[in-house]
Write a structure and sequence with these properties.
Strand content: over 45%
CATH topology: OB fold (Dihydrolipoamide Acetyltransferase, E2P)
Strand order of the largest sheet: 3-7-8-6-5-4
Helix content: under 10%
CATH class: Mainly Beta
Length: 131
């Protein structure tokens, strides 16, 4: 990776672009079957078998309906979880935006880094956490 670039995945979520650093991405896979978990937070679609690991799956899309497209398997603090509801637009090295912390530039657009800490926190701050 060259200076001034960050490797990662460019996602489109409800029409807006978001960047996910490669250091947080385990793999991108076909969407597996998702099993609903009673009492889970609203943003959690359920759990899925992702390559032999059972992981919680979080919806990034605001709309309803079944998830389509790819499952982006991520890790935060060593815990894997899946992201659904985003279109994988591109992978590669993107120009760092020097004027905005945690943003990359794609063409002329400033693209923010997806806040995995906040997404992961949704799983930890509910009655479902620790089950």
């Amino acid at each position: 990776m060259t200076e001034g670039k960050r490797a990662g995945v460019l996602l489109r979520i409800d029409g807006a672009l978001a960047f996910l650093p490669v250091s947080s991405v385990l793999r991108i896979a076909e969407m597996p079957a998702i099993t609903h978990v009673p009492g889970a937070p609203a943003s959690m679609l359920g759990i899925a078998n992702a390559g032999g690991d059972v992981v919680p799956v979080i919806s990034l899309a605001q709309g309803g309906g079944p998830p389509r497209g790819a499952l982006v398997l991520c890790t935060w603090l060593g815990e894997p979880f899946g992201l659904a509801g985003a279109e994988v637009v591109q992978t590669g090295a993107f120009e760092v935006d020097g004027s905005a912390r945690d943003c990359v530039r794609v063409e002329s657009a400033r693209v923010p880094t997806l806040d995995l800490a906040s997404l992961h926190g949704r799983l930890r701050t509910t009655a479902w956490a620790g089950r």
